[in-house]
Design brief:
mainly alpha, elongated
Length: 180
């Protein structure tokens, strides 16, 4: 609650003073650091959590990947993503893929992000394609952006944000703004 209100320091204080920590409290604090752009702190806490004998679940892994995305920690994000299968024996979820696509897309790795989407074992959702399209718009990658936009249009465009993202991309594409 404190972190959502912008009071990260208070969140840390509550976390440090808890008598018993559990997976939910660890995950919450990892997420708090991520939301506040403190990816390194998030990763350090994730490691400490493991050192204390806690094994992450899918939600914890999503939180730490999102933290990497918000802080531009590409190599660390790749390692965490790979560890989902290799270290924890889990199948990366759609949410894990969306976080990785967001991370790669934000920092100009659209080709790698598209490759990740194409190699997903499950069907890529609108959140995955939307993350890719947002990265393409940011880095003016029209070719992959068109692929992502067309895939998004195949979905029902359930959310106004997804619809708006496609419309903005198409407008920028038509008027040539995306090429400037």
């Amino acid at each position: 609650m404190y972190a959502k209100c912008g009071c990260l320091h208070d969140s840390e204080k509550v976390f440090r003073n808890m008598r018993e920590l559990n997976l939910v409290t660890w995950t919450t604090m990892i997420s708090c650091y991520g939301v506040h752009g403190k990816g390194e702190d998030s990763l350090a806490l994730f490691k400490k959590m493991g050192d204390c004998g806690f094994k992450p679940n899918c939600i914890t892994l999503t939180a730490v990947l999102a933290s990497c995305s918000h802080s531009g920690l590409i190599d660390q994000g790749r390692r965490i993503f790979d560890s989902i299968s290799f270290d924890y024996g889990l199948e990366p979820s759609v949410e894990h893929h969306a976080c990785m696509v967001d991370l790669l897309g934000r920092f100009g790795h659209q080709e790698e992000a598209l490759g990740l989407v194409k190699n997903m074992k499950s069907v890529a959702t609108a959140s995955v394609w939307g993350a890719l399209l947002a990265g393409c718009m940011m880095h003016k990658n029209v070719e992959i952006g068109e692929v992502a936009a067309l895939q998004l249009l195949n979905w029902n465009l359930e959310t106004p944000a997804t619809t708006l993202l496609c419309v903005v991309f198409m407008i920028l594409l038509v008027d040539g703004t995306i090429f400037q």
